[in-house]
Amino acid sequence: MSIDLSQFFEVFFEESFEGLDAMEAELLNLVPGEEDLETINTIFRAAHSIKGGSGTFGFTAVADFTHVLETLLDQIREGSRDLTAEHVNLLLKSVDCLRALLRALQAEQQPDLAEADELRIKFEEILGMRAAAKAVASNTDSEEPSAESSRNTFQIDFKPHHHLFKTGNEPLYMISELAELGDLETQAFQDDVPDITDFAPEECFLSWRFFLTTDKEQSCIEEVFEWVEDDANITITLCGGLFGDELEEKKVVQVATDTDIKETETAAKPTAEVKKSAPVKSAAANTESTSIRVGIDKVDSLINMVGELVITQAMLSQLGEQEITEATIASLQEGLAQLAHNTRDLQENVMRIRMLPISFVFSRFPRLVRDISQKLDKQVELKLLGEQTELDKTVMEKISDPMVHLVRNSLDHGLETVEKRVAAGKDPVGTVTLNAFHQGGNIVIEIMDDGQGLNTTKIREKAIKNGLISESDELSDNEINELIFLPGFSTADQVSDLSGRGVGMDVVRRNIEALSGSVEVSSAPGVGSTFTIRLPLTLAILDGQLVRIAEHTYIIPLISIIESLQIDISKVSRVGKDLDVLRLRDEYIPILRLYTIFNHQGAIETLDKTLLVVVESDNQKVGLLVDDLLSQQQVVIKSLEANYQKVDGVSGATILGDGRVSLIVDISGLIKLSGLRKPGSQELIIESKASLEAS
User: Fold this and answer.
1) What's the predicted TM-score (pTM) here?
2) pLDDT by residue (tens digit) across 281-296?
3) How far apart (Å, rounded) are the C-alpha atoms in residues 163 and 146?
4) Cα dihedral angle (536, 539, 545, 547), rounded to 10 degrees?
């Protein structure tokens, strides 16, 4: 009976990626000459786990590469080699390389080993393995190794507990590791193997005795078995120089040489290597994790809520069997109220399961800041605040890339070089701060830097040159800064791998808007810039305002609504052919007639008999004309694209309590659909303001 190891692949990949994240975080904390032994041990353990797991599942490319990396770490933690900045850089590159290899294997693609081979050569040069190999090769025919006298023979008795295989450990790979330490002879004992009727293929019934002749210390042997110390009986005894013919009579079953071990390893290798005939998946399709780790407290709370629901359901069922009286009606109403309360609590607890601390996103930025600051020759300190602020897993995975772009911009455009900062009287070390906090039903993420700020003059000149605005436009500094989010806009004088291609900030805004969020920028010359991202806590549930247009019910996201009011017709002016503008506290609000946009008949068209819902998107306010305001309620969002197709001006749909389908309004999409596009809409509102004030 064979076990299909592929069922464990996803767990292995997730644990390996977590191990790589831990390695990267600890490597960034290392300071050459001041390294902490516990930090080195943490990095070593993560590498050792990845090596062991990849060997177990037959991912030999990963196991072989990790082995040489592990050797360097072992020497550093033993104190036989000093840690240098070159070592840290190589180890960080190795983390990236391992991540790429694992992602390729996860996508069932053949990994590219070019970078791994280059890094392996560098590690072997540092370790002196290549020079040693050449020296051994040149001396093989002329003389015996001079270090033979310093070699010792160890007897190792290894008796695994029966459950060893269930822990994911494989004795074959431990034998292989022992063989790498020196000359190995192996004895296998089958005394505990039961009769075939009692045989369990998931359990380990063999035990071994090894005789290892090596110049390594006993601690090196102990490390081979350190992961199974609690799952086996292990005894290591120094036997002196006993080896060869003297051991012949001690053999019990069968002795395997190093060659036999390698041949056995090849023959028994699990079917985890990538099959060429396997369907090739896109690597990008696997960038989002398909699982989530949930705290036991959240699971316990969920179980308690389900228990309450069961009790309420039992009570209602009992009432349903009784004769209907005034007393049973009162009890029934009480039970329904309790059911509504339990359902609401259950919903909140289920949503909490998807919530993860934003530290999962923030953790990638220390490495990013370190690498870019080195490339730009800038000194940068990264501050992380609000790391425990929780956010929906789906939102978190999609916000990562926009945040990376904003941080790269802060490092490239925002922070000055050391010389410029000193000349300006600033601390030579620039600061980039990531902050996250809850505000109402949203999460707010701030990316702040203490650099030179946005150059509004340069932004305006570039916008005029690109035809985005005209020279006669009178824009405030904030409005000028908003121009950086327009497609194709860039103020970089030179194109580099970091910036200057005019692609990025518009994509950032578009990706954030796709999450029903918004991004704003504020800046002060010489002080710095702050990019503020506002996102809903979850994409699954929405607080909405139900409105009626003719016979149709729509939902406007409550987060977008500023106020609702009756229109004072005396403050309404017509601009152009068909755009009405309402003057509201020194602002001019364009009025969008939803019945026209959605092509509905029978709606109220007279302005003073309708209601106006003032909403905001991308710092732009518009008024939505509706017939009536209905209730406010939480709605479960259903994707239109998944069930029908994309509809302009609509972000999704939901099912109301009476079974009807109601569409959820996309404010940003409505503005674009109506023709009020930035910067065109700004120009229109500004022109109308000037013309109205002039009149």
Assistant:
1) 0.59
2) 333 334 455 667 777 8
3) 44
4) 140
Residues 195-199 have a mean pLDDT of 79
Instruction: List the one residue out of 372, 401, 404, 406 whose CA is nearest residue 496.
Output: 372
46, part of any domain: yes
Token readout for 180 is 């790498």
3-state helix, strand, coil in the chain (%, to 5): 45, 20, 30
Whether 258 and 365 map to the same domain: the answer is: no
Instruction: Determine the 3-state secondary structure of 368 from DSSP.
Output: helix
Ramachandran angles phi, psi of 184, nearest 5°: -125, 135
pLDDT tens for residues 46-90? 888 888 888 777 888 888 888 888 888 888 888 888 888 888 888
- By the 10 Å C-beta count (0-12 exposed, 13-18 middle, 19+ buried), 90 is classed as middle
Of the residues 246, 267, 288, which one is the last residue of a structural domain?
267
Contact 676, 590 (CB under 8 A): yes
Q: Residue 620 belongs to a domain with what CATH number?
A: 2.40.50.180
Residues 487 and 447 occupy one common structural domain: yes
Q: What CATH code is carried by the domain that includes residue 409?
A: 3.30.565.10
Q: Check whether 694 has a pLDDT greater than 60.
A: no
Give domain status of residue 489, yes or no. Answer: yes
Position 143 confidence tier, pLDDT thresholds 50, 70, 90: very low
* Domain coverage including residue 15: 5-138
Nearest residue to 295 (alpha-carbon basis) of 361, 390, 362, 364: 390
Contact in structure between 367 and 29 (CB atoms under 8 Å): no
Bin 619: left if φ > 0, else alpha if -120 < ψ < 50, else beta: left
Q: Which residue has 């970089």 as its token pair?
A: 492
